[in-house]
Amino acid sequence: MKQTTSTTFTIHKLLLSVSLFSLLWGCQQNSNSEDTEQTSDERQGPPNFVIIFADDLGYGDLGAYGHPTIRTPNLDQMAAEGQRWTNFYVAASVCTPSRAAILTGRLPVRNGMTSNKSRVLFPNSLNGLPPGEVTIAEQLKKAGYATAAIGKWHLGHRPQFLPTAQGFDTYFGIPYSNDMDKVGKGNYRALPEDSIRYEDYNVPLMRDTAIIEQPADQNTITRRYSEEAVAFIKAHKEEPFFVYLAHNLPHIPLFASKDFKGKSERGLYGDVLEEIDDGVGKIITALKEEGLAENTIVVFTSDNGPWLPFETHGGSAGLLRAGKGTTWEGGMREPCIFWSPGRIEPAVITGLGSTMDLFTTFSNMAGVPIPEDRIIDGVDLSATLLEGEPSPRKGILYYRGPEIYAARLGAYKAHYITQGEYGQFGGKEEHATPILYNLSHDPSEQYNIAEEHPEVLAEINAFVEEHKTNLVKGEDQLADRE
Ligand code: MG
């Protein structure tokens, strides 16, 4: 009985906070609407872009994507006012190749960001994203954008591979995963929550090419990243800008600042997400205050699915199968929200999208030609974003390292190879007859319909074969280490 009363009270408080929040948000919009119009009129021209990229956040981790207890009111508001995509993919189910793809619009197999020997870069890795690759930042520099990378990079931490060598004017962040450079003893999974200390991970915090703090104080890192984004936006409000804000969290080890720790009904993982969401709110507020909301496109997504062996410290893929490291849907389908009031047509989009499409879409919106000396895998989503047209993307390739494990065409996905990861979901298995799912009917990948639909398998095979005829694999950049 006591439990029920307290739950009811919590729900009342929650509803009250949500209504207060909506009121405040509404007032702010009204009070700013006149300034907004004036400022937007003053600076016509290409839109600003803000990408907010979470680490290891799953398809089921946001309120707007159905999580029952994690509170993400700012992202939910963005989803309600903008577009919430439900079939949006990353190009790899682990950090490094996924990041290479979002920034270059290319499958990581093309630029050497896949390997049979290593799935990601490590602090003793010698290489990074090849300098000859063209990033979104380099594209937008051609149109005079100010560009900032904030947060996790993980595309090479040596000077020639850092963001400042890849089109970004500035960099502030931890250059790889927040669990690397571990110096503390003990197995993270076995440690009591209150004994997890940032001092046990000697990761550097960098400003441009210099280390400014080591170990980085990860308790405050999420807040500092969001504040850095707000400061950059305010400093560059008179010119077009691009902010790539790649949070190190909710990748384990989990840390949250005083204001958020112990607050979420979901526990520490929820605290972390609620702090990320709070930062999203600060960025949205800053854009509104500066009258930039209508001329800025904000995108929120994540680099790969949840890291499930970490149990309650990992996220949730919701109704999708498996998680990080695999080519099941839980590893590679992510929440993706696009927001720009008056510009993005509010909708739920069930068509296909990929992080690689941001390269092509943003380049076109900024009036910068797409490079013609290389294959770009992104397609232009502008007509879907701005006019609600069906997505032009027809298919998805699910690479694991340099190998294709699965392919999706329309609603159908064929698995040629299946393999679990981190001791879960089974060993590597090649399928002489691929497993076929209709993901529109069966998003959890439960019911193999290969026998009933040989014609669908033939179409998917042709799609994969066509891709392979143009494929030149890049030289492995991940294997070499000190
Ligand atoms: Mg990740």
Give a description of the structure:
It is a single chain. This protein has 482 residues and is of the alpha/beta class. The protein folds into two domains: 349 residues, 3-Layer(aba) Sandwich (Alkaline Phosphatase, subunit A); 72 residues, Arylsulfatase, C-terminal domain (2-Layer Sandwich). Helix content is 29%, strand content 18%. It is built from ten helices and 15 strands. The strands form two sheets. Strands 1, 2, 3, 4, 5, 6, 7, 8, 9, 10 and 11 form an eleven-stranded mixed sheet that branches. The chain has a four-stranded antiparallel sheet with strand order 12-13-14-15, with helices on one face. α5 runs parallel beside α6. The chain is globular, with a radius of gyration of 22 Å. The termini are far apart. The relative contact order is 0.17. Bound molecules: magnesium ion (MG). Magnesium ion binds next to loops. Magnesium ion (MG) binds next to loops.
